[in-house]
Prior knowledge:
The protein is of the alpha+beta class. The protein has helices spanning 2-7, 9-24, 34-45, 47-50, 97-100, 108-117, and strands at residues 53-57, 60-64, 77-81, 86-90, 101-105. Strands 3-4-5 form a three-stranded antiparallel sheet. A hairpin with a 4-residue loop joins strand 3 and strand 4 (86-90). Helix 2 packs antiparallel against helix 3 and helix 3 (34-45) crosses helix 6. The two termini are 21 Å apart.
Amino acid sequence: MALAHERGPADAVTVMWELVRAQMHEPIDDQPFELGIRAADAAYAEPRLRELFPYTSHWVLCFSRCTGSPHTFDVPCIGYLLPEWRYQVRWPGWEDIDRLVLGEADTAEEAVALVVANLPEGCSAAVAGTRDDL
């Protein structure tokens, strides 16, 4: 990952997508996490999200407009509702989670569409640095 960062933000994003997608294929309690796999694949298939820096937090799929930490918190994340096997799209953060929820979706594609519909104005490819550098 360090080498990717040295090559620039586009390489860092590419490598991180590979890592996130591989992580979603790691079994939880000996079972593949199908919701996570579908979310990562659907998000990667969306060009506007594929150029953002992906990361996970407690298996929630998050996106940042910068490649460093602290990440931006202005792009919605895709979480999961279990045992309902649905998606929950919400703003990043853990305080007052109910206030942060944008909506729920039955499919990964619907969740991705909700994320895209709530991208900040002018959102484009992730840049090098942290949210403090934007």
